[in-house]
Amino acid sequence: MDVDSRSGILNKEESYKSYDSSRYAIIDVEVGLKDYKIHDIGALRYDNAIFHNASKKDFYDFINNVDYLCGHNIIHHDIKYLFGSEQHRWQLVDTLYMSPLLFPECPYHKLVKDDKLINEQMNNPVNDCQKAKELLWDEIARWHSLPYDKRKIFASLLKGQKEFDGFLNMVNFDEVASNLPELIKQVYYGKICDHADLSSIIHQHPCALAYALALIDTTDFRSITPGWVLHNYPEVEYIMKTLRHTSCNNGCSYCNTLLDIHHNLKTFFGYDQFRTYEGEPLQENAAQAAVDGKSLLAIFPTGGGKSLTFQLPALMEGRTVHGLTVVISPLQSLMKDQVDNLADRGITDAVTINGMLDPISRALSIQRILDGEASLLYIAPEMLRSKTIERILTSRHIVRFVIDEAHCFSSWGQDFRVDYLYIGRFISNYQQKKGCKIPVSCFTATAKQKVIQDICDYFKQTLNIELELFASTASRTNLHYSVIHADTDDDKYIKLRRLISESNCPTIVYVSRTKRTKELATRLSRDGFEAIPFNGKMDSDEKNSNQEAFMTDKARIIVATSAFGMGVDKKDVGLVIHYDISDSLENYIQEAGRAGRDPQLNARCYVLYSDNDLDKHFILLNQTKLSISEIQQVWKAIKGLTKKRMNVCCSALEIARLAGWDDSVSDIETRVRTALSTLEQAGYLERGNNSPHVYATGITVKNLDEARKKISESILFSNEEIETSIRIIKSLISQKYISKAQDSEAESRVDYLADILGLSKNEVISAVERMRQEGILADSKDISAYLHDEPGDNKRKAKNLLEDFAKIERYILNQIKDSSLQVSYKHLNDDAQKNGITISKEKDIRTLLYFLTVKGYIRKKEDVAQNIEIVRQADLETIINRFEKRLEMCRFIIEWLYNQPSLVTNTDSEKNAIKFSIIELLNNIKTKSQLLFINVDNIQLEDVEESLLYLSKIGALKLEGGFLVLYNAMNIRRIKDNKARYKVDDYRMLNEFYKQKIQQVHIVGEYANLMVKDYNAALQYVQDYFQMDYKKFINKYFKGERNKEIERNLTPNKYKQLFGQLSQRQLEIISDKDSRYIVVAAGPGSGKTRVLVHKLASLLMLEDVKHEQLLMLTFSRAAATEFKQRLMELIGNAAHFVEIKTFHSYCFDLLGRIGNLDDAKNVVAEAADMILRGDVEPNKIGKTVLVIDEAQDMSIDEYSFIKALITNNEEMRVIAVGDDDQNIFEFRGSDSKYMFKLLNEEGSKLYEMTENYRSSQNVVNYANSFIKNINNRMKNTPIIPIRNYSGCVEVVHHESEYMYQPIVENLIQNKRDESTCVLTQTNEEAVIMVALLRKYGIRGKLIQSMDGFSFWNLAEIRYFLKCLNKGNKVPIIPQQLWDEAKLATFAMYAKSNSLCYVKRCIELFEQINKVKYYSDFREFIYESSVEDFCDISDADVVVSTIHKAKGREFDDVYMLLSDYYSKDDNLIRRFYVGMTRAKNRLFIHTNGKLFNNTNIDKFTIDSNTYSMPEEVVLQLSHKDVYLGFFKERKKEILSLRSGDTLNYNDTIFYNAVTNNPVAKLSKNMQVVIEDWHNKGYNIKSASVRFVVAWKPKDAPKEETETAVVLIDVMMNRLK
Hints:
With 1615 residues, this protein is α/β, with parallel strands linked by helices. 44% of the residues lie in helices and 16% in strands. The chain is elongated and about 150 Å long. The termini are far apart.
């Protein structure tokens, strides 16, 4: 710049000349938001000349003859860019700084909004100059209209300030007051305190004082100082408080009226005096303290007038300093009630912002705050996280924060809330921004000493505030308390009716559960008592209607949860009945206190008490508490999300799923946010404000008319969207000087626009994207795609993933051939795999169905058992076409993103993100149409969005920003290291709260018991609770053992019922809550099952384990069924929700396949691999406790699976129970070394259970001596017999090869009326033994198997399934259909010997399944074997192999032990298992030498030689018959029944009735029969054992099954 061109720039030697106010120019400079360079300059000169050019040189020439440069916000913006730091000669007149002084009254100047000019033009600085000129002339006119003294005051205060000197010179006013303080007092008499120290304020803050005086002079209290003024002159708030809200000691007319609480009580509420509480002026004292600016904690009893205590000071400060009081409360319904109650009094100063508001109501509330129309804002703690809320609060003068329900700060309070702990941080940050201290008022209805201390300590630590305490020691004398004991629910109801009938007054009946409000109200109404329900979950209209009916005496009885009564002031309630006792004394006193609000009314408060009431509270607490393991799971999810980036944006639902939480968990989002608050409090992470990353910036149109024209003519906008888009663009354009705003981004952020315009975020985003598409808004790259580190390889992975999902989706869509499909996820996945889509996973099907539902392809209903109904939303062809179109676009998007230059050059995974916009992507798709096989002309923005969402959902890309803002995302920054683990110490505060909750339930129960016995003692008890030191109170009323009792979340009676009969060792195991791995070596008869069942009960009821996070694995369906039955007997219906499964069943679940024992070979190993690959949904394996039964039977597969579960769940606890001495399944890979391996894990503990409650002393001692020869046993202590019964052990050593005959003789000789079992080593021996027993007239029952066939192959069970399938398309089996299927099956197979197995199967299923799901029943039978349903109750003697007898017990046991096997540890363990089945007597018959040297009661040698029995039975398996023979005879075979006689001739069996052939011996079996023939045996008879379904495994899918008959062959020895 040469010297001539900058003639206006002063050198240091130059001086100002005289100025002519008529020589002015109005200027405006357009500056780029990103480059901060001048893009355009506009100016209007006094001679009407116009300048519009970006050249500074030309601009200097244009203003060369000008003395005054005028404009809006030019001093700190335009001038900086025009002249930099150099001095200049022009006088500056800034309309921004004068506007609040001259137009402080609401409504403000029509051209000004906050710090901006209102304008509908964009990028036209000349137009902006015209607006600024209009404003300047209005300001000059207003200045001249002011009284002379006020002009003199302003001039005296503002002279010498660069922001104001130019204006004062222009209006030619240079007079100043000689005694300014006196002049101000004189002019503002009656509006400020007479004794305010004005001199120091004038000296220190003259500009701020001017703005304060301008506001004081307004006649409308809703007028407020603009936010930009408070930002630049924060002292305004202090000055307002000093002049208008600081009562002087001497007293003056202003303070004696406007600051007098009695005067204002009458003015606002019409009351002559404050409410007293038993004579104490609690309300008045607390209100006065607030008016005096003190921070306080007030303990207000119910009916004490808490609301008025903070409302009155808030309304007063709203009038005096135009301030805003923020009331933070968790009770959203109460907020609305209080706002409405004030409105009923004509006070419209209060607004509420909470999650229950619709967008329009929310926008109105926000606008009222911004416009100054609100003195009271009610808000929920969670709303403090909103960027919009932070912004609007910063723009106002906050005079006080009021925190309701302040006991929520304390873990010792009855309702501790972690989100309350954020309040201090929010206030602290707010105070730092504003540079001032803001007082705090805390309120609670009831609080014990420890809670009071916690609240005070919290504010001292976070804000350095001392709270002054206001609490009453008086008690209500007009309330009479009574507790009536009720034995049963019916008894309780009868007593309730009696109490109501004896009274004739408004009555509140409190219940603990929402559901019960309607049930009880209906029952009372039916019995002639007009009652209405009330609960927090009711529809708001119904809730308001019922409350109104009770308040106006239209209904005299209201049945309610504790939600009723908060803020409700009905003085004539004469009766309060607690149908269910409250969960704490605090809540009880508060709820009971809603009676007798009129001090003259004597009211009665009853509790109908039953011990079960407390158990219900304990169950509810256990269901709702947030356990340490759940927080650990959330922390693990956060670590996973932040693995590559410390900052993430994600939704609560996304975190819950990654944490392994079940979607069906109630209030899942609230629970996640609580967990995040807890982690934040412990320093693990930091939650930012809930703000999306989408901004509507870069306006490209010149004015609103152009925008309106483009929007109206566009085909992209519907009629509704046209109106929405015009509102949005108008809001953006009105913020013309966006670069000059305090927070430019905030005003263009989508959530802010949604909030202030009363729109949903979806509507705003949709409109913004369409306006970008039309070029009304500049396109913004607001989507980030986070890609992987190796572009080439991962591009291939993303493509493969897309194609895999496409196969699954195509299959799913084609399955919905009808308009709807009813199926389960597992069945759908199983069918997909069977149809060749081997990559299908249940997790992927869930993802796809979720996406298809969200995008409107289908509607989906799901029940608790994850059965689903899928309904198509269009015809199949349309849906398939839409799918193919999306697939093509997704292929293009992957190719396009992975080829972006920034990806290739950037290898830092933290920054490895492609930034792009949907418009950019849409244009690329359209310009490169040759790459796609679809018509690109009809591709819309929604299609691109859908494709991106799809890629994000299937995991091909990680996307943030843009349209993804729709998912209520939270900003989270991980602070601690990714290896850090959330520890017990971090959980201390929450744990303390839950401990307190447990104690509070016990304490209120003790109150009820005391009240029954001694009224005065109970009243003293309550008084002590609130006034004594808590520990002293506990020691006084819960002495000795009772001190421990109140730490358990069970009543003493319930605890005794559940755990009172356990041994010391069993209790130790059950009480261990800390060991990471509990390994129990449980000897035979030691109560293993009992310990496991009670441990499950303990986990659910005494420990912080929820049913969905508990998993028990067994090795057989029979064991799983028994545990479920036993648990139901112990804890009732809660047992239904506990997952008790076999290893195979659980693994089939994880694989998403239908399980059956035929396909179970590799399923456990496959599931382990799947977990390690991350292919299993976290909520399926997100368990906190794993319980393993028969842990000694684990093989490498089961152990690897458990290790995979442990690896996936960092904090999972494992409880493994087994007996290494009973590991007898080595042939299938089981090895007790894996149980030992669990003991080697860190944090493991071994418990030995060596007390045998089953067997007699001699049996135990003999078994001990027999097993001790095995090395490396887990138990160091011999088994100890507990029974005081000797019993006996006898061993007979036979020299004969066959021992059947002597065993039977021995059994007949010793037979008692007790259970008896014969144990053999092989099934063949067992069958022969049964035949021999039958010959002697003894009913022998064989525990048998089906030799290679599963139970579900049984003809009887197949028929039952067929009956259930008839016409049933719903997941739940209707009871009528179930009953009909049973009748039909029982009739069809009435003569079948196998029907007993089916009956037992159905009986057991009914016992353990409250609701009968078809999928559950199929799984139940698929997993079962026939021996699971063998009823041995009516047998004289049970015959079994040792393996099948494991887990059973008998009074007398006979063992047939042939010397055919190698003498190793496996054999010893097998024999040991057999011995330990005996309760009283054990008889061993052997022809081996293994028992020769053992120490026994009786050892005899039998040198007789015995032959095989005359009759032997051969049980033919499928290997013994020619299977091809059955294919053409299905109908004939199905007509057979188990037990039917068959004829035999020349290798073929015939139906004895029809004489048709039904089976043929295989070649191998023909040889076997020939061998028996050579031994002298011939076939005497044959009968049907089982009829089963069969199909070769390698048969084509379409081939139908045939029927196979399994035969028993009776052979006789020839004489």
